[in-house]
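#struct-help
A.M.: can someone run this one for me? Single chain, 444 residues.
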Amino acid sequence: MREWVNRLAEAGDLLTVDRAVDPRFELAAVTKRAQQAGNRPILFRNVKGTRLEVVTNLFADARRLRSLVPVKEGPFAAAYASMLDAAESRVAAPTREAPAPGDLQQGQLSDLPLITYHERDAGPYFTAAIVLALDPDTGVPNLSFHRAMHAGPRELRLRLGDSHDLTDYQRRAEEAGQSLPVALLIGVSPAVFMAAGTHLPAGVDEYALAAELAGKRVDVYSGAHSGLPVPAATEVVIEGRILPAERRLEGPFGEVLGYYVPEAPNHVMDVERVTWRRDAMFHSLLCGSREDLAPLEAINAARVYRDLSRRLPGIVDVSCAPAFMNTTVQIRPQYRGHARDVMEVVFDSHADYNQLCCVVEEDVDLSDMNAVMHAFITRGRVDARTLVISDRAGFYRDTQSDFVGRVGLDATRPFGREDEFVVKEVPGLDAVRLEDYLTRGKRM
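D.P.: on it. Structure tokens below:
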């Protein structure tokens, strides 16, 4: 991550804040205001209460995400899907043993930036923390994102969720009466960050995907306390264990959907060692912002693209912008009813996220929801082009049936009548530079 931040700075893409900033609300407020003005990453050099610099908004831009995928041709979804295939079939070891960084410093949780983001948040949270754990039976590493609430000098409270591999690891450890060793990784390489946000089949090592994205094996060292394989380039490492049969109140917290998740009993991590590299940069992530949503959208789009292209012809591209729980598919229609078949596959592809599916053709920008809705409204009967599924379960965290059901919108042209729906164009538009035509001066 440090190398990537340096490259962004050299390219003039990095914003810097030198004045003292309060980690309680002010840092988040400045971050959000900067995000409203653009997608440039931000480095806070002087955060009150800590010596560590804080960097944020690194993954908010689609162009930057694209730069992380070694396959440069074609749509991002197709390129990332090829990385998933490579990771799942990888035979070579994805990691390489390396010595621990020679500049490691040891301290306490209180030495780290303790950032409170939202008005009703229960306290400071580590939002970009990746939890590293090993399968208790097979020893396969797992990387996954879980929010961590600071609750004391040696205590963090984690929300594991119901359908994560880490939840299964903890359950098996707990059934055996054992704690689960974990390490929280904050400030990792972009390849490890993207791999941690990607759900792979059980038993597949997320380090395999990181190695494919990076184009090389991931250097890891054994955590001094946990023995876990920690990426050598990690800025901050928090080692400890999730306690068995222990739940304590965590939350409320302003989550990815834009609302507060209420207070609830969640898992407890006993912190045993905190280390960071010299001149470490602490990664902060404003939940629900573009830095949170853009990677989720890109990763989910790749998974949907892979499922679609394996089962149906004519799949051009997939986007899950602007809210990661909707999916827009761009197709080259092959037959009457093609769009409806696409919707059915999408709804089966990822039960958690695909609540709304829109299908368009190549003449519609699938990332522009205004254009998508215009195509849907103007290309035929809206009632006949809408698919409603009433009883299919949705978002894994849903406990009130708020996300049950699916809606599909066919925004393609009527099959066989494509010539009646040719989008109008103005010849020579691309060559026009407006400044060549405007006269500067006072109005007479």
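A.M.: thanks! The mean pLDDT is 90.
D.P.: also worth noting: The longest strand covers residues 236-250.
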